[in-house]
Structures are given as C-alpha cells and as structure tokens.
Write a structure and sequence with these properties.
α13 (260-295) packs parallel to α15 (338-360). This protein has 18 helices and no strands. The chain has helices at 2-12, 14-46, 49-66, 73-76, 83-110, 112-119, 131-150, 154-177, 182-194, 197-208, 217-226, 229-255, 260-295, 299-333, 338-360, 363-366, 370-394, 399-436. It has 437 residues and is mainly α.
C-alpha cells in the first residue's frame, strides 16, 4: 500500500507538480459542482424560464462589467517580478475596481429609463441597481484569487469555490421557496461571487502587511506605467471577449419572443459544470507555472502538454452530457425545459474548443502579445454579434443555434493563433541561445 501511495504521489508531482495542483483544484471544484448539479433541478422547479431569462440578462451584464472592473491589472499579479511589485498591482486592481463601480452606478443613474426599456425589464427595473454590487464583489474576489494563484496556494482557492457554491445555491433555493422570483436568483449570485473573499483577504494581509509602509503615489504610478499595456489593451480585449459572449444573450432576451434567453442560460450552466471542473482548474495552474516555462524556452511544449491533458479528460464528459441532454433535461428539470436540452447539443463544438483554448490563452499575455489578443477578441466580438443580429432578421427560429456556431468559429480561430505565436516564441528563444553561445 505504501509503495502504491508513493507511486501516486510521484505521478502527481511530475511536470513540476502540474497534476498535483490540478488534483487539488479539481477536488474542491468537484464538491462545488456537485452542489450546482444538485441545486439546478430544484431551481428549475422554483423559478420558471421567464425568471431565468431575467437572471440571464443580469448575469450577462455582470460578466461583461466584472471582466474589466480592475482594468486587468489582476492578470499581471502572478507574473510580477517580485512580491512587492505584485502587492502594488493588487492595490492598483482594487483602486480600479472601486472607481469603475462608481462610473457604473453613475451611468445607471443617468440612463436608467433607457436601459430598462432596452432590456425590457420594466416590471423588475429596480434589479438593475444590483449590478454594481455584483461587479464590485466579483472584482475583489478575482484580485485576491490571482494573488493566491501567484503563491500557488491552490487549496485555499479550492475551499473558497466550495463556500461560494454552497452559499449561492442555498440563498437561491431559500428565496425561491419564499416566492422571491428572479430577485432570488440574482441575490444568490451576488452571495456566490462574494463568498470566500474574507479568507483570501486574510491570507493576503498576513503575507503583505509589511509592504504597506512602502506604498506611495510615486510607486503606484511607476507600476501603472510598467504594466500600462494591461489597461490599454487587455481591458478592451476582455471587454470584447466578454461582450462577444454575453451581449448576444442580452440581444436574444430583448428581441426574441418568449424565454429563449432562459433556455440558453440553463444549457450553458449545465455545460459550464465540466468546463469549470476541468478548464478553470487547469487555467489557474497553467498561469502559475507558465512564466517560468517561458523563461526556460519550453512554453510551447508545456502548453501542448496541457492541451493534450485537456483533450484526454474533457472530450468524453462534454460529449456524453450533450448527447443525453435532449432526453434527460425534461426528466431532471421539468417538461418546460426541453428546449434547453436541444440547445445544449448545438453548444458542444463551441465548448470543446473553449475548453482547449481558454486556459492556454494566457500565453499571449506572457508572450507580451496584448495587442494581438485585443485584435482577436474584436474579431470574435463582430463574428458573434454579427451572426446573432443576422439570425434575428433572417433566421429568428434558429438564433440560438447560430449563436452556438459563432462561438465555435471564434475559438477555432483563437486556437490556431495561440499555436502560431507559441511556435514563433520557441524559434526566437532558440535563435537567442545560439547568439549567446
């Protein structure tokens, strides 16, 4: 038995501890996703498709704004050269998050009526004020999660994900039982994104409080200027990416008759279960190890190994879920949700490509290709929005299917672009070594 355990431990520590790190994050995510799986059949019976449609609009707006609330300084935290520089990036991220949320609140105040009319939320207009709250806590969690990623303390991230899932699902179920309609789903989501923040902040504070005495406007300005490509390019890249995914959902909710956005949201939530289970865990570990692999000139090899691991462990569960969805959805979620099961099958090609691309897309930041990443996301934005708008005019009965196709096209383009730049980086590293010999 001892020999077997030693062999397992050695295997997990292969590739610089990559598999061990993945196993830690996956362990926490298994629990979190189990809670999601168990809660969804309950939620679909407490909330109807129209209420899920309102929730879809809220979460779409939240995702778009949360992606840029820290001006992408949080992405630079794991790759900063030393602890004090990373600490300063945390401060810049938090400052950005605060002021961006003030701007969001001011925008809602000035254009409240227009926003409500466009989103067709006249009956639940007050819910729009919950957006800045969700964005604020999402930003805070992301900042400290990237700090913990830098420290490779993956157990803490795993535990916070468990807390988030239990807290969010509990609030949504309780409020659904009490008859709170769509606001129950939204408040549960806010609780979910904010849960676990205290644990992350506590770890950060104990490790960095000695740096506070060195904080100054001069240092903040210097680090801002050093990493200015993140707010200049990565912010717009993240906006284009998130908007490309989420704005079609809002457009579908605004233009389609019936709760189409609600069906789409349930289908995507189910598909995101294996995606978060596998892809998010790999993404955290990849970002923690990729900078040192780049310095060693083996980032291309390391990335390809990650892609192969993703294919091995990801294709089967995604395919099985998609094929069974049209049969299983009415049984699990109720007869009202048959349409969501049909949509999920169309999402399969998109999510297979996203599973492969999303974790390793961070390589473009490490290669200092923020401009190219921005161009890619802008192309993706126009592909998605363009096809959805075209479908709304010419093929309104197939608008969700065409939206799914647009996601596949974009991630396929992104995949080949990442591979191209990785190959180029390997060649450049080899040339540099030859010159130095």
């Amino acid at each position: 038995m001892k020999s077997l355990l030693e062999r397992i431990n050695n295997k997990l520590n292969d590739q610089g501890g990559f598999l061990k790190s993945i196993s830690i994050l996956v362990g926490g995510t298994v629990f979190a996703q189990a809670v999601t799986v168990l809660s969804l059949p309950i939620l679909t019976r407490l909330y109807n498709p129209s209420e899920f449609s309102i929730f879809a609009v809220y979460t779409s707006l939240l995702a778009v704004l949360a992606a840029i609330s820290c001006l992408r300084f949080e992405i630079a935290i794991p790759i900063a050269k030393d602890e004090e520089e990373a600490f300063t990036l945390v401060l810049l991220s938090l400052i950005s998050n605060f002021f961006i949320n003030i701007l969001i609140t001011a925008f809602i105040f000035l254009f409240y009526t227009d926003i409500i009319l466009f989103l067709r939320l006249e009956s639940v207009g007050s819910l729009i004020w919950l957006i800045p709250i969700g964005v604020f806590f999402s930003g805070i969690y992301n900042v400290f999660q990237f700090w913990i990623t830098r420290k490779k303390q993956f157990k803490i991230i795993a535990k916070t994900r468990m807390v988030q899932s239990v807290s969010g699902a509990s609030v949504q179920i309780v409020m659904g039982i009490l008859g709170f309609a769509a606001i129950g789903l939204i408040l549960g989501q806010i609780v979910k994104v904010s849960a676990g923040v205290y644990r992350l902040i506590r770890e950060f504070w104990f490790e960095t409080k000695s740096f506070l005495k060195n904080v100054s406007l001069k240092k903040l300005k210097a680090i801002f200027e050093k990493y200015d490509q993140f707010p200049k390019y990565s912010t717009f890249e993240a906006l284009a990416n998130s908007a490309g995914i989420q704005l079609p959902v809002i457009i579908i909710a605004a233009l389609s008759a019936g709760p189409e956005a609600g069906y789409l949201m349930l289908a995507m939530q189910v598909m995101m279960i294996p995606m978060q289970f596998i892809g998010n865990s790999v993404s955290q570990v990849y970002l923690a190890h990729a900078p040192e692999k780049y310095q060693s000139g083996v980032l291309e090899k390391y990335t390809k190994e990650c892609i192969l691991q993703l294919l091995k462990i990801g294709i089967i569960p995604l395919t099985v879920i998609s094929i069974l969805a049209p049969i299983v959805f009415p049984i699990l979620f109720g007869n009202d949700w048959q349409r969501a099961g049909d949509i999920l099958l169309w999402l399969l090609p998109w999510f297979v490509m996203q599973l492969i691309v999303s974790p390793v897309s961070m390589s473009l930041y490490i290669l200092n290709k923020q401009k190219q990443a921005l161009v890619l996301q802008l192309i993706g934005f126009f592909i998605r929005i363009g096809l959805v708008l075209y479908a709304s005019v010419s093929f309104s009965d197939y608008i969700l299917e065409i939206y799914a196709l647009s996601g596949f096209i974009f991630y396929t383009l992104y995949f080949f672009t990442v591979i191209y730049f990785l190959k180029k980086s390997t060649k450049d590293f080899s040339k540099k070594e030859k010159r130095e010999v």
